[in-house]
Amino acid sequence: MIEKKNIFTFERFKQMIILVLMWMLGIVVFISTIFVAWTLVNTLVFDFNGLDFQRLIIDLFGLFFLVLVGVELLETLKMYTKEHVVHVEVVLLVALIVAARKIILIDYATTPAEIFFGIAAIIVSIGISYFLIKKSLSNHSDILD
Hints:
Elements: H1 2-46, H2 53-83, H3 88-105, H4 113-144
Helix pairs in contact: 1-2, 2-3, 3-4
């Protein structure tokens, strides 16, 4: 009887921690979204003349991807609170978004070729992992039907 009470309180404590993390991450995503909007408006309206447009677009895409990663992490935490399962395919999609952000932000002129090969290997391995998990899940659902 005591073990059930301890497990219950631990589960409740864990849920409270996840809820606090979700709130904090939500605040960070909200503030980041406001920052992206402010940066976009401030740059386009007030400081557009002196900027390299290509660099501006790359920086803005990096900020957008950063907010998108926060939203996906928030979604992962929300799904965990509902189902008590971490969906690996969602985590892999977040990893792909992070890799895409890195590709967009990388300085092609000064980055050594080894870095590009490393990023390519990471993307291929994440893609293969995602494919295998999706294939496994579809085979598993076919067996259950």
